[in-house]
Write a structure and sequence with these properties.
Blueprint lengths: L4 E5 L2 E2 L5 E4 L2 H10 L9 H12 L12 E5 L6 E5 L8 E4 L3 E5 L2 H8 L7 H8 L15 E2 L4 E6 L2 E6 L12 H16 L9 E5 L4 H13 L5 E8 L5 H4 L5 H8 L5 E6 L9 H8 L8 H13 L4 E3 L4 H5 L3 H9 L3 H15 L3 H9 L4 E2 L2 E2 L3 H9 L2 H16 L3 E3 L5 H9 L6 E2 L1 E2 L1 H6 L6 H4 L8 H10 L2 H9 L3 H6 L2 H13 L10 H18 L5
Helix pairs in contact: 5-17, 12-15, 13-14, 23-24
Length: about 550
């Protein structure tokens, strides 16, 4: 979606049109079919406005792809702005006594608002302490955002924000074979899209993990003859040999690339890091962010742009959408089905080559509380995880970097139809010895066996800590030595200094199963943002 900036004042909208709608061609056909409407040559905005007037918010439940809808009535000053299910299109807003400001970016709001913005201290403190993201607030008191699957209505400068239904239950056969076939069909549909058939060069963020292997393999098998695939992969050859096996995915990448015509690009990461480019990222994003590995995406987009690639596919959050299935084990535990639980843990233990005790602690005890809540239903917990603001937040950051390089990102796993299907399948099929069992079955014959049965995952923490010590060390130490006065009021900086000494003393320990690098990253990002924007004591 292109960026929009709107200022509404005295019942006038400063915009060339009073309706905007961004929907895919596929969704246009779907809503016309669902609501028995004969399509014509009218614009997307006119079509959506008519159907909304006839059927209300129900029409938003039919969209499968990212969408955006804005309508403004210049006669009475009423308006409606709708955010998609997942949160691809951001909607920020702010008010003063006479005006309502709307924008798709923080920088757009700041430009329109034209005043000094006050820091939202609570959000900043949560960020420094690594508490969950807010889906309604920003780092500025005056600026709010519309959560995914919500719409904002305004009338006479009064605002109302309401949700529409995000999840729908699929009516599918309870048979395992049918559910596997259904997932295969939906994966193919979400990856091989008609919108992409007109593009000759298609890019992919490719690690060699199950998710990126799935997307590249499906596209390579079913693409149009004229289409060329470009894959971009980060390499970590500079990491110590004793650790390289924990981050190196070359063997899995080779399985996808062999006997193919894929145009593959490896890029070394030794001289790359997020903190070394922090000022640029803060300008683009407009506020502090948590994305330690953003430099990997940045470099891939830069290379794609130089190759003339305009669309880049990502396998982001495929594991969240499909689910590892651990919530099913939690459900068995909470409902006292302990014999069945023991049987399931035993199967998983054997396949993953981990002790039963390890599986129980990580997959059951470690998963009981999600966001300080207990879910007795595996399906409800899966939906709660998918609704977490962290996903939309990451998408927003990635899209801002993509826009910087003239790239459009495509996220097949975030197709809402695919999401609804995955939350509707039998919970026990998500873990059947193998985590994400149903995905592994659905991609059989498309994804190479080595990748399909892969159980481990690359640990990018080793790359992050290497960058901390070998590229960003002076910058980190300068930030720790010069804490902003606002930061000093919110946290004990002595703890940050201690965490830094711990990393220096034992970097390997803090590269795995440690939140210390994340705390350091959050501190440096917030401190630098304050230095750049709030350097004078108030």
């Amino acid at each position: 979606m292109k960026s929009f900036k709107i200022k509404i004042s005295n019942n006038k909208v400063h915009l060339s049109e009073n309706m905007i709608a961004h929907i895919s061609k596929s969704d246009r056909k779907i809503i016309c079919k669902d609501f028995d409407y004969i399509d014509s040559d009218e614009s997307n905005a006119e079509l959506v406005a008519k159907l909304f007037n006839l059927h209300g918010e129900k029409i938003f439940e039919s969209f499968e792809d990212p969408f955006f809808f804005f309508i403004y009535n210049a006669l009475n000053g009423d308006g409606l702005i709708v955010r998609d299910h997942v949160g691809f299109n951001s909607i920020y807003y702010a008010q003063d006594k006479n005006n309502l400001f709307l924008s798709s970016s923080i920088s757009g709001i700041k430009e329109l608002f034209g005043e000094n913005l006050k820091i939202n201290i609570r959000v900043l403190k949560d960020f420094l302490e690594m508490n969950p993201f807010s889906d309604k607030e920003t780092f500025f008191k005056e600026i709010k955002k519309v959560p995914p699957a919500h719409y904002l209505k305004f009338s006479s400068n009064k605002l109302l924000i309401k949700p529409y239904r995000k999840f729908r239950n699929f009516k599918i056969s309870d048979n395992e074979e049918d559910q596997v076939k259904g997932l295969n069909k939906l994966l193919k549909k979400s990856i091989i899209r008609k919108e992409e058939s007109l593009d000759n060069n298609i890019g992919f963020l490719f690690s060699g993990g199950l998710d990126s292997s799935t997307i590249v393999s499906f596209f390579n098998k079913f693409k149009k003859k004229n289409q060329k695939i470009f894959t971009y992969t980060a390499q970590f050859h500079h990491i110590d040999d004793s650790l390289k096996r924990l981050i190196d995915e070359k063997d899995f990448q080779k399985e996808i690339l062999k006997n193919s015509t894929i145009n593959h690009t490896d890029f070394e990461t030794k001289d790359l890091s997020t903190l070394s480019n922090l000022d640029l990222y803060l300008r683009l994003i407009g506020q502090p962010f948590f994305f330690p590995h953003l430099y990997l995406i940045d470099e891939a987009f830069r290379l794609a742009s130089s190759d003339g690639v305009k669309k880049v596919f990502s396998g982001a959050d495929g594991d969240t959408v499909i689910s590892h299935g651990f919530e099913y084990l939690v459900q068995l535990f909470l409902k006292l089905r302990w014999i069945k639980l023991f049987f399931e843990i035993s199967k998983t233990s054997k396949i993953m080559k981990k002790s039963k005790k390890f599986i129980f602690k990580r997959a059951v005890i470690g998963q009981i509380f999600y966001n300080k809540k207990i879910y007795f239903s595996a399906r409800k917990q899966h939906k709660a995880v998918l609704s977490a603001p962290i996903h939309a937040n990451a998408l927003e950051i990635e899209s801002l970097i993509a826009d910087f390089y003239g790239i459009t990102q495509v996220h097949p796993f975030y197709n809402i139809n695919l999401i609804n299907y995955c939350t509707s399948v039998r919970p026990d099929l998500k873990i059947k010895g193998y985590p994400r069992y149903i995905l592994r079955e659905a991609v059989k014959g498309v994804v190479p066996e080595k990748n399909r049965k892969r159980l481990d995952k690359s640990n990018l923490g080793h790359g992050l800590v290497y960058s901390f010590l070998n590229k960003d060390r002076d910058f980190i130490e300068s930030q720790i030595s010069n804490p902003h006065h606002i930061v000093k009021d919110l946290i004990d900086v002595r703890n940050i200094k201690k965490y830094w000494r711990d990393i220096l003393k034992n970097p390997r320990r803090h590269s795995t199963s440690s939140n210390v690098p994340s705390l350091i990253f959050s501190y440096v990002v917030a401190n630098r943002w304050l230095q750049n924007n709030y350097n004078k004591k108030s």
